[in-house]
């Protein structure tokens, strides 16, 4: 029941109505006995400053932010957590008595989802396909978690050199070897995959109009000892995961990351553990 003491949390994005976050957090508030409600708000960059001010005005627990606000919101916050500072993007804001701190739980959520499957990041070589916002968050967190080497494959376009420079800085700050290669260099990709423990698809190849496509041209480069993680969770099994299964490799979709990044935000707001299995069942049964 909503009362005079009910707290508010929310989602600031544009568009916002597609989000699974209200289902995840409202299920968790109820299960954990937290007197709070989570709503989705359509907030673009024009209304972002005013929306962030409302977090203080309404004494909200905090909010999640997504595109197009993950970078723009930084200007309106009081401080950033170490990983948000390194990534340069925020997906969770926590309100502590009017002081707003930005976090990025995407990478942490991914690492938790990897550990949940029984795999490890520490001292592993990881190949990442794509270098967008989610990829950056994951790469930074894996470097912080002690990955031995991370190899990033990105299209050689106008942002290639600046991104390479950025990852050089991340490598210097974390002590993790990070290399960036042209996505089109299949020979190099083959060498890296043959010695990799983990493959992460952080591109959109495998969803929507690209659901019948593969993020690597030659599936023969996959091997049975490779743990394959696809950040896509709809469809539940992408073509990449299907091909991995055929050769006996373990494959996992992006639902674990989605849930765990939300779970970390929930913990930051409430100091309680999200009922992860209950949330997973709700999402899979929707």
* CATH architectural type of the largest domain: 3-Layer(aba) Sandwich
Q: Given the C-alpha coordinates, what overall shape results? A: globular
Mean pLDDT: 97
Fraction of residues in helices? Answer: 25-40%
Helix run count: 10
SS elements, strand count:
12
Characterization of the model:
- This protein is α/β, with parallel strands linked by helices and 286 residues long.
- Helix content is 38%, strand content 20%.
- It has helices spanning 21-32, 48-57, 82-87, 106-116, 133-144, 160-174, 186-194, 239-246, 255-270, 276-284; strands at residues 7-13, 36-42, 62-65, 79-80, 92-96, 99-103, 125-129, 149-154, 177-182, 198-201, 227-230, 250-252.
- The strands form two sheets. The chain has a six-stranded mixed sheet, with helices on both faces.
- Helix 6 (160-174) links the parallel strand 8 and strand 9 (177-182).
- Helix 1 packs across helix 9 (255-270), helix 4 (106-116) crosses helix 5 and helix 4 (106-116) packs across helix 9.
Question: Topology of this structure?
Answer:
Layout: E1 7-13, H1 21-32, E2 36-42, H2 48-57, E3 62-65, E4 79-80, H3 82-87, E5 92-96, E6 99-103, H4 106-116, E7 125-129, H5 133-144, E8 149-154, H6 160-174, E9 177-182, H7 186-194, E10 198-201, E11 227-230, H8 239-246, E12 250-252, H9 255-270, H10 276-284
Parallel strand pairs: 1-2, 1-3, 4-6, 7-8, 7-10, 8-9, 10-11, 11-12
Antiparallel strand pairs: 3-5, 5-6
């Amino acid at each position: 029941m909503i009362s005079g003491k009910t707290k508010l949390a929310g989602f600031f994005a544009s568009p916002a109505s597609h989000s699974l976050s209200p289902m995840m957090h409202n299920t968790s508030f109820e299960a954990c006995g937290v007197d709070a409600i989570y709503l989705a708000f359509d907030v673009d960059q024009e209304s972002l400053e005013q929306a962030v001010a409302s977090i203080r005005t309404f004494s909200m627990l905090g909010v999640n932010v997504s595109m197009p606000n993950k970078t723009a919101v930084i200007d309106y916050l009081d401080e950033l957590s170490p990983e948000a500072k390194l990534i340069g993007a925020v997906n969770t804001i926590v309100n502590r008595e009017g002081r707003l701190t930005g976090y990025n739980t995407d990478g942490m959520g991914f690492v938790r989802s990897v550990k949940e499957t029984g795999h490890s990041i520490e001292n592993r070589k990881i190949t990442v396909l794509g270098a967008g916002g989610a990829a950056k968050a994951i790469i930074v967190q894996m470097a912080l978690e002690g990955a031995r080497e991370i190899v990033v494959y990105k299209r050689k376009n106008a942002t290639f050199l600046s991104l390479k420079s950025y990852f050089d800085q991340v490598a210097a700050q974390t002590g993790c070897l990070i290399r960036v290669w042209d996505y089109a260099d299949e020979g190099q990709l083959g060498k890296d995959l043959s010695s990799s423990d983990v493959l992460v698809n952080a591109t959109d190849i495998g969803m929507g109009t690209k659901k019948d496509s593969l993020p690597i041209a030659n599936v023969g480069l996959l091997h049975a000892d490779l743990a394959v993680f696809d950040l896509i969770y709809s469809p539940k099994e992408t073509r990449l995961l299907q091909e991995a299964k055929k050769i006996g490799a373990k494959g996992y979709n992006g639902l674990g990351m989605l849930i765990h990044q939300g779970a970390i935000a929930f913990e930051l707001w409430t100091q309680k553990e999200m009922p992860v299995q209950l949330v997973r069942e709700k999402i899979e049964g929707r």
